[in-house]
Amino acid sequence: MVSRKNKQRVLILSSRGITYRHRHLLNDLASLLPHGRKDAKLDTKCTCKIYIPWKNFHFTGNCLKGSRPILSFDASFDKEPHLRVLKELFLHIFGVPKGARKSKPFIDHVMGFTLADGKIWIRNYQISETEPSKLKSAEEETAAKSKSKSSGGKETECSLVEIGPRFVLTPIVIQEGSFGGPIIYENKEFVSPNQVRSEIRKKKAGRYNARAEQGIERLAKRGELGLRTNGGRQLPKDALDNAELFA
């Protein structure tokens, strides 16, 4: 029986005006998705789309390109309807299907999805297998030998080493279609960065206007007191002034 190749694809897009750091991170993400495809425009033929701006970090460790990950989700993803939708979306995007193109038939890394502060924290870990430490007591060595004999293999210790990329996602809206359609979820607490920058500009403009008004009031007071040569209240002429005597 001939196995059919899985044709599921994930389209990877980026927003306009990204920097070289964003491009490097998108390339790292694409290397984790053997069933992904990078493009500069939206393609309706792809089954899943991922559209992310991010930040990059550097970690030690590595995982083989094309390997399939274990996806670990926080229990909070099963509590809210929109979180269940996001969980299903992540399963389709990061869960490399069996038999996908360029995928390898083994698992060597774990991707963790955690919900905290209304954001989704995503981490990538390498499954590191090492031999147990040689500094063990006689009882531990005997137990290890008996365990290895019963299991029929060599005893190893497994640990997780973060290898990146790591990123944080803020859910804004969930639409029924791909980048369109009715909104089925909206984050009411989300504040757009453009709005934040606009508020900062307004505050700066308000401080400038306040200083300008204070300057105008100060000049007006000086003019009323006769401390300005031009403008302000005119003082009465003195009959003994030299300008009047020798006019």
Overview of this structure, please?
- The chain is an alpha/beta fold and 247 residues long.
- 31% of the residues lie in helices and 24% in strands.
- It has helices at 20-32, 81-94, 138-151, 193-224, 242-245; strands at residues 10-13, 36-38, 48-51, 68-73, 107-116, 119-130, 157-162, 167-169, 173-177, 180-186.
- A hairpin with a 2-residue loop joins β5 (107-116) and β6 (119-130).
- The N and C termini lie far apart (121 Å).
- It is found in: Nucleus, Nucleolus.
Beta content comes to 15-25%
Give a count of the beta strands, DSSP E runs of length 2 or more. 10
Measured distance between first and last alpha carbons: 121 Å
What is the mean pLDDT? 76
What would you call the structural class?
Answer: alpha/beta
**Largest beta-sheet details:** 5 strands, mixed
Helix content: 25-40%
Oligomer: single chain
Rg measurement, Å: 33 Å
3D shape: elongated
Order of helices and strands: EHEEEHEEHEEEEHH
Uncertain runs: none
The number of helical segments is 5
